[in-house]
From TrEMBL:
Organism listed in the record: Gandjariella thermophila
Reported cofactor(s): Zn(2+)
Superkingdom in the source lineage: Bacteria
Matching InterPro entries: Amidohydro-rel, Hydantoinase/dihydroPyrase, Metal-dep_hydrolase_composite, Metal_Hydrolase, Metallo-dep_Hydrolases_sf
Protein keywords: Hydrolase, Metal-binding
Protein name: Dihydropyrimidinase
Domain Amidohydrolase-related span(s) in chain numbering: 56-442
GO MF assignments: hydrolase activity, acting on carbon-nitrogen (but not peptide) bonds, in cyclic amides; metal ion binding
SUPFAM superfamilies linked: Composite domain of metallo-dependent hydrolases, Metallo-dependent hydrolases
GO CC term, one of those recorded: cytosol
Recorded family membership: Belongs to the metallo-dependent hydrolases superfamily. Hydantoinase/dihydropyrimidinase family.
PTM text: Carbamylation allows a single lysine to coordinate two divalent metal cations.
Length: 467
């Protein structure tokens, strides 16, 4: 199948240009400047011509942080790999990197097998895995090497959740030494869980049980402290470090200082930290439970710092941390005890649109939008230039985006398998029109043409910022 995308504005991390794109099979065959006349020559050989006049032509989004079917306290995050990757495609994301979760007492390799069994044959778009390491021991450390060889070379650890995922500083040190030796990348959930657990116990003992307590018992200082500690451990071990879901100005300050000193420290933030706040956690009638995620939504004052961090590249990636739990049956588990509310929010469908609002508002340039949503995640996680750009030879993961269309976000119209939208009623300028995944049109003019099983597992190269 040959597809010609004509008359659009191609936007990559290096800028925008008036160009036409020829897709042949699963890959991009050629790009031609508008005035070259080449598209006229290609047109008769194309099976389909897409007129992208007035549209942006973008590399497909890469969401490097999702949790499909994630086990949590006896339940699972509500999107399966099929529903979650389908929703991603609707929103212009053509690659996800999901987290395989090591349970304590199990091995990394059996965990990886389990996640392959969930995902393989079920994804509508391409996907890779990170590994959550929750049990540091000699076997785990040895298996990290095998994971790296299998293209799963990024390892998330937790300074939060004592007794569940929590790793001690000593365990983190050991894993970082292994990462440094193998080329792996440690990803850190940086919140001081030991201190947080005390604050949570005090709140519950005092009868403060509402969702807003989730935010009040996880103060930004304890994200800043954990971030600094992770950076120190990374420095001592010579390991690179990637801070996931950074939400607080204090944590960003620590990252900025380390980067300015030349350390290989990277960080991502998420749309919820750019647009939502602790005021949402304080919504009445238990509605705040919809907004429980960790780290928690912060006071609005943090948001300008995050946007600035995205411009200065101290924040280099925007991922969603998509981890949906239904309000009705699942969030309900924490009524009367905020500490039992499943942690996570839906978002995989709306990342490209929400970041486009940053372009509309003048917070981000067009090129920077593409860079934080696609190109840098590709480079960070060893997928570039196969993914993350529009260039000859790259996979034909392409989004045709209408920058002037209007839409209103709502659970009534989204495709995620969850009964609420964190952005219910939000008006968006811009809309995904057509999406190609490896040369196949999967979304077009309001209809889905993809299917489970089209998406393939991506064996990733090492982080491309380190070599
Ligand atoms: N961290 C995540 O990255 N996702 C869900 C919950 C959490 O703590
Ligand atoms: Zn986390
Ligand atoms: Zn800097
Ligand atoms: Zn997460």
């Amino acid at each position: 199948m040959r597809i010609l995308i004509r008359n659009g504005t191609v936007v990559t991390a290096t800028g925008a240009s008036e160009a036409d794109v020829l897709v042949d099979g699963e890959r991009i065959a050629a790009l031609a400047a508008r005035d070259s006349g080449l598209a006229d020559a290609w047109s008769p050989t194309a099976d389909r011509v897409i007129d992208a006049a007035g549209r942006y032509v973008l590399p497909g989004g890469i969401d490097a942080h999702t949790h499909m079917e994630m086990p949590f306290g006896g339940t699972f995050s509500a999107d399966t790999f099929e529903t979650g990757t389908t929703a991603a495609a609707w929103g212009g994301t053509t690659t996800i990197i999901d987290f395989a979760v090591q349970a304590k007492g199990t091995s990394l390799l059996s965990t990886l097998d389990k996640w392959h069994a969930k995902a393989d044959g079920n994804c509508a778009i391409d996907y890779g895995f990170h590994m959550i390491v929750s049990d540091v021991n000699d076997t785990t450390l040895k298996e990290m090497e095998t994971c790296v060889d299998a293209g799963v070379n990024s390892f998330k650890m937790f300074m939060a959740y004592p007794g569940v995922f929590y790793a001690t500083d000593g365990e983190i040190l050991l894993a970082m030494q292994k990462a440094a030796a193998t080329g792996g990348l440690v990803m850190m959930h940086a919140e001081n869980g030991i201190a947080i657990d005390q604050l949570v116990a005090q709140a519950l003992a005092a009868g403060r049980t509402d969702p807003v307590q989730h935010g009040l018992t996880r103060p930004p200082e304890l994200e800043g402290e954990a971030t600094s500690r992770a950076i120190a451990l990374a420095k001592v071990t010579g390991s690179p470090l990637y801070i996931v879901h950074l939400s607080a100005a204090q944590a960003l300050d620590a990252v900025t200082e380390a980067r300015d000193a030349g350390q290989n420290v990277f960080a991502e933030t998420c749309p919820q930290y750019l647009y939502l706040s602790i005021e949402d956690l304080a919504r009445p009638d238990f509605e705040g439970a919809k907004y429980v995620a960790s780290p928690p939504l912060r006071p609005r004052e943090h948001q300008p710092s995050l946007w600035r961090g995205l411009r200065t590249n101290d924040l280099s990636v925007v991922s969603t941390d998509h981890c949906p739990f239904c309000f009705n049956e699942q969030k309900e588990l924490g009524r009367g005890d905020f500490a039992k509310i499943p942690n996570g929010m839906p978002g995989v469908e709306h990342r490209m649109d929400l970041l486009h609002q940053g372009v509309v508002a003048g917070e981000l340039s067009l090129a920077r939008w593409v860079e934080v949503a696609s190109t840098t995640p590709a480079r960070m996680f060893g997928l570039y230039p196969r993914k993350g750009t529009i260039a000859p030879g790259s996979d034909a993961d392409i989004v045709v985006y209408d920058p002037t269309a209007r839409q209103t976000l709502s659970a009534a119209t989204h495709h995620m398998n969850v009964d609420y939208s964190a952005y219910e009623g939000m008006e968006i300028t811009g809309r995904v029109e057509t999406v190609l995944s490896r040369g196949r049109v999967v979304v077009d003019a309001g209809a889905f043409h993809g299917g489970a099983g089209h998406g393939r597992f991506l064996e990733r190269e090492l982080c491309q910022y380190l070599s």
